[in-house]
Design a protein that fits this description.
about 140 residues, alpha+beta, Thrombin, subunit H, 6-stranded antiparallel beta barrel, 2 helices, 9 strands, about 15% helix, globular, disordered C terminus
Length: about 140
């Protein structure tokens, strides 16, 4: 018989570290950056209502948006992100995969045109500017 066990331990007073969360971060397909990008979004099927929010982090696989709006897991949104001034915005379709306090995590289902290349260029440029994790 196999049982699933989650192990947690304290790193600092009042803090907990979940081993499962760390393993999941290591298994990500794309690097993620902490960056605020203005993102216009609307729920598919509701073209009249376009709203704007800020990203908390971004990767080629998805985005975490700070939103006051409530979406359900599985909702599909149309997204528009301006990564580079003077270039075509990145248009994408994303599905809500997780909700946190005031944030919604979206997995990109589709990225139009050269959007994936723009995401890759943007993320790589920002990662080169940011110090290594743990460096001071």
């Amino acid at each position: 018989m196999v049982t699933k066990t989650t192990v947690s331990f304290k790193l600092a007073p009042g803090g907990r570290f979940d081993i499962v969360a760390r393993i999941m971060r290591c298994r990500r397909r794309f690097p993620r950056i902490e960056r605020s990008v203005v993102t216009y979004y609307r729920k598919l099927g509701n073209p009249a209502l376009e709203l704007a929010g800020l990203s908390r982090n971004l990767s080629r696989g998805g985005i975490l948006l700070s939103l006051e709006d409530s979406f359900d897991i599985g909702d599909v949104l149309s997204l528009e992100m301006v990564l580079f001034e003077g270039r075509t915005p990145v248009n994408a379709i994303g599905r809500v995969v997780r909700k946190e306090d005031g944030s919604v995590a979206l997995e990109f289902l589709e990225v139009d045109g050269d959007g994936d290349a723009q995401l890759k260029e943007y993320i790589e440029a920002r990662r080169k500017k940011e110090p290594e994790e743990g460096a001071r």
